[in-house]
Design goal:
Length: about 140
């Protein structure tokens, strides 16, 4: 088990959340998968291991993770929400064909926030940047 998962579980325990095997598995899957899965994909991946688990269970747990600030919901277009367990500052590159989302970090984007503050007097609290294109897999087909 990765240290990120350990850390996340500790964080949940301190906020008084019971760690069920299902919660553990959902969190694990989210932290390991860099694909920003949908609730459905999480459900399908874990169903063989947890036959009694429903899609509703997955949704409820994701909601709980979001409330504790450990998971971010990504809503792009009208496709299903995808979920991201990386809540640090980063940006997303999205495939217009298959909907896959990849993380991208580019430090000088912080400058954009500072420039915006200077120009408008706003206190900028965050930035959501989306880049669109065609991923390598889709390019080959």
């Amino acid at each position: 088990m990765g240290t990120r998962v350990q850390h996340a579980l500790e964080q949940l325990k301190t906020s008084g959340v019971r760690i069920t095997p299902q919660r553990h598995a959902i969190l694990d899957f989210l932290l390991e998968s860099m694909t920003h899965p949908t609730a459905d994909e999480i459900y399908r991946a874990l169903e063989p291991k947890f036959p009694s688990m429903s899609v509703a269970t997955v949704y409820n747990n994701l909601k709980m993770f979001m409330e504790s600030g450990m998971v971010r919901e990504l809503t792009y277009g009208d496709a299903s929400s995808r979920f991201d367990a990386n809540v640090s500052e980063h940006y997303h590159v999205i495939c217009e064909q298959c909907g896959k989302i990849e993380d991208f970090m580019y430090p000088s984007l912080k400058d954009v926030e500072h420039q915006a503050e200077k120009a408008t007097g706003y206190h900028v609290k965050g930035l959501r940047l989306e880049l669109y294109g065609i991923c390598e897999t889709c390019k080959e087909h």
